[in-house]
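FORM 12-B: Structure-to-Sequence Request
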């Protein structure tokens, strides 16, 4: 059973209506934190998610459908949650999108959207969360980067650039908060079986005439030596650890959870 170390805290997880973000949100709720959800999806399904989290973990939830590519909507979302809960104690910048193409064929509008959502949104949420964290002299900022914040892959120029930028933002935020009880760190996952990665699996299966399971093994074998996907629950457990007293002096790290990808 999860020890409820975060009772009384409020956590905002961007991009949390599915995948990694939802897994992290549930882990933080299991530790007792109230949860602010953000992301796209069917309104009824999101309401059911809220009810499920509230019932499973006896916490409060709220939701904003703010478009993370738009500063004005991010500002409105932050104001909404801070008015409702008093402050955002834990900020998890998870929202992200992907597009795969060579640099010379990369649509400029896709580049702009990926940089906006994967990197610039984290700047906006961070600048808006820090004042109340400083007032409370406690806070945790966790940026969900990627192994692509540490190493590159071909045909992912915007994603790699954004995730490297997010690691840089993490370090600067950590330095600016170093003399406080606010920490900022990045988690750098390898392959996680999210809808985003499942699309890559499906495309590979179709291209190479493989079963879905064989396509998964083929994808993992290229990068992830463990041959296993990272799970959202494992990432959530690491996020909870970053929020603990034991992690007080972990500041500005880019912590890869990648089945050995970056060790190669």
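FORM 12-B RESPONSE
SEQUENCE OUT:
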């Amino acid at each position: 059973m999860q020890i409820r170390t975060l009772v009384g805290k409020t956590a905002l997880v961007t991009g949390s209506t599915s995948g990694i973000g939802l897994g992290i949100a549930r882990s933080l709720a299991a530790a007792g934190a109230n949860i602010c959800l953000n992301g796209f999806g069917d309104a009824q399904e999101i309401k059911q998610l809220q009810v499920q989290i509230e019932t499973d973990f006896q916490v409060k939830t709220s939701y904003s459908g703010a478009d993370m590519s738009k500063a004005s909507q991010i500002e409105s979302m932050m104001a909404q949650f801070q008015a409702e809960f008093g402050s955002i104690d834990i900020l998890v910048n998870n929202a992200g999108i992907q597009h795969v193409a060579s640099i010379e064929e990369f649509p400029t509008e896709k580049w702009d959207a990926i940089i906006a959502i994967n990197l610039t949104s984290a700047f906006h949420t961070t600048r808006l969360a820090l004042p109340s964290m400083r007032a409370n002299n406690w806070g945790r900022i966790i940026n969900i980067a990627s192994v692509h914040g540490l190493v590159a892959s071909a045909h992912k120029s915007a994603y790699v650039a954004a995730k490297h930028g997010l690691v840089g933002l993490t370090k600067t935020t950590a330095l600016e908060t170093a003399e406080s009880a606010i920490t900022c760190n990045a988690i750098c996952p390898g392959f996680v079986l999210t809808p985003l990665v499942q699309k890559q699996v499906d495309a590979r299966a179709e291209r190479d005439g493989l079963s879905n399971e064989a396509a998964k093994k083929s994808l993992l074998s290229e990068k992830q030596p463990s041959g296993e996907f990272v799970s959202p629950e494992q990432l959530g457990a690491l996020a909870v650890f970053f929020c603990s007293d034991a992690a007080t002096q972990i500041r500005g790290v880019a912590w890869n959870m990648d089945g050995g990808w970056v060790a190669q």
